[in-house]
Specification:
Layout (H helix, E strand, L loop, with lengths): L1 H7 L8 E5 L8 H17 L6 E4 L5 H9 L3 E2 L15 E5 L4 H10 L3 H4 L2 E6 L1 H7 L2 H7 L1 H6 L4 E4 L7 H4 L2 E5 L2 H5 L28 H9 L2
Parallel strand pairs: 1-2, 1-4, 2-3, 4-5
Antiparallel strand pairs: 5-7, 6-7
């Protein structure tokens, strides 16, 4: 909670709503249950009502969807592929262990200093992504992550021996308005929607793949 509060005590606005992607099958996966529990505790800590937290994962089963509803959480009606606009509201995006394309799509959808400064992202370390990828691959396939790195503040979640596999490589990211304003003007000129045509390891279920994914989940 302290790591999440850090940006809120500085330049980031306290979130008034939350979006969660990629939680996974928490009915059968202990790590996903821990991540759900942490999300609920964060909402309580940040005083965000459960009804203002929306979730999506194409892997959710009907009983899992019902359980989330009983907790007061909302399900997004369709696969946004991460392209969710903050719409001028300070928003926490909870995206633990999501694919790089989801983070890239989210940044693209909110590609302006005025919108990015209203976002806090809990997810895979952007610094780690930069370190693990060749610079040309990062700039080609995930250009919005590459372009925002110098405008990003990042704090790693504290490690805990019991939850090493649950929250490893997870950081809190925020985008101070002053740092964003210091980026070169040409950074904001290119706003083409990502397509990932050359990406070989795309870690995202596309909207058109959703029906097939649901059939696989429902299969015995």
């Amino acid at each position: 909670a302290g790591a999440v509060r850090a940006p809120l005590s500085g330049s980031a606005e306290p979130p008034v709503r939350c979006v969660c992607y990629g939680l996974g099958r928490f009915s059968g996966c202990p790590a996903a249950r821990y991540q759900l529990a942490f999300l609920l505790l964060l909402l309580e800590e940040l005083r965000v009502p459960p009804g203002r937290c929306s979730l999506f994962d194409p892997a959710f089963s009907a009983p899992e969807a019902a359980a989330l509803g009983q907790l007061g959480l909302r399900l997004l009606p369709e696969n946004e592929e991460g392209k969710h606009s903050v719409e001028g509201s300070a928003t926490l995006f909870y995206m633990v262990h999501c694919g790089k394309a989801l983070y890239n799509n989210l940044l693209w959808r909110n590609w302006s200093a005025g919108e990015l400064c209203r976002m806090v992202i809990i997810g895979n370390s952007f610094r780690g992504i930069e370190e693990r990828l060749l610079s040309r691959t990062l700039e080609r396939d995930y250009s919005y992550i590459a372009k925002v790195l110098k405008g990003t503040e990042e704090v790693a979640l504290p490690t805990h021996p019991r939850y090493l596999d649950t929250f490893n490589d997870t950081s809190v990211h925020w985008f101070p308005l002053q740092k964003l304003k210091e980026l070169p003007p040409e950074v904001w000129d290119f706003v083409e929607e990502p397509t990932y045509q050359e990406c070989e390891d795309l870690e995202i279920i596309r909207k058109e793949d959703g029906a097939e994914q649901r059939r696989l989940v429902a299969a015995p």
